[in-house]
Amino acid sequence: MTVISRLPGATEEQWDWQLRGACRAADSRLFFHPPGERGRAHEDRDRAAKAVCARCPVRERCLRHALAARERYGVWGGRTEEERQHILRRRRRNRGR
């Protein structure tokens, strides 16, 4: 579940980046795997989602949002759940130094 306390306020300036997302023209199922999806199907879907993200003008903003809100599911900003978790773990380790 998204940590709501980490979300920005309800002002248009905080959310209008979503209107420019390349994903708006795509089927949202591309970005969120169905239950039980594994192997080649999972990799192919992630690769296709990342291809949409690669041409997105707000990709970095999307990734920042996903990291700040601790989005648990889906491809956000061109990164999978596992990749985002790796980024967050690396940040925590670097803060501890």
Automatic annotation (TrEMBL):
Originating species: Kitasatospora griseola
Spans through the membrane: none
Residues binding [4Fe-4S] cluster: C23, C53, C56, C62
Primary location recorded for the protein, binned into one broad class: cytoplasm
Family, per entry: Belongs to the WhiB family.
KW Iron-sulfur (keyword) present: yes
Function recorded in the entry: Acts as a transcriptional regulator. Probably redox-responsive. The apo- but not holo-form probably binds DNA.
InterPro entries named in the record: 4FE4S_WBL (IPR034768), Whib (IPR003482)
Gene Ontology molecular function terms on file: 4 iron, 4 sulfur cluster binding; dinitrosyl-iron complex binding; DNA binding; metal ion binding; protein-disulfide reductase [NAD(P)H] activity
Record's comment on post-translational modification: Upon Fe-S cluster removal intramolecular disulfide bonds are formed.
UniProt keyword Cytoplasm, yes or no: yes
Protein name per the record: Transcriptional regulator WhiB
Source species taxonomy: Bacteria, Bacillati, Actinomycetota, Actinomycetes, Kitasatosporales
This protein's GO CC annotations: cytoplasm
Keywords assigned: 4Fe-4S, Cytoplasm, Disulfide bond, DNA-binding, Iron, Iron-sulfur, Metal-binding, Transcription, Transcription regulation
PROSITE patterns, sorted: 4FE4S_WBL
Cofactor binding note: Binds 1 [4Fe-4S] cluster per subunit. Following nitrosylation of the [4Fe-4S] cluster binds 1 [4Fe-8(NO)] cluster per subunit.
Gene this protein is translated from: whiB
Name of one Pfam family that matches: Whib
Names of the cofactor(s): [4Fe-4S] cluster
Domain 4Fe-4S Wbl-type: 22-86
One of the GO biological process terms: negative regulation of DNA-templated transcription
Compartments where located: Cytoplasm
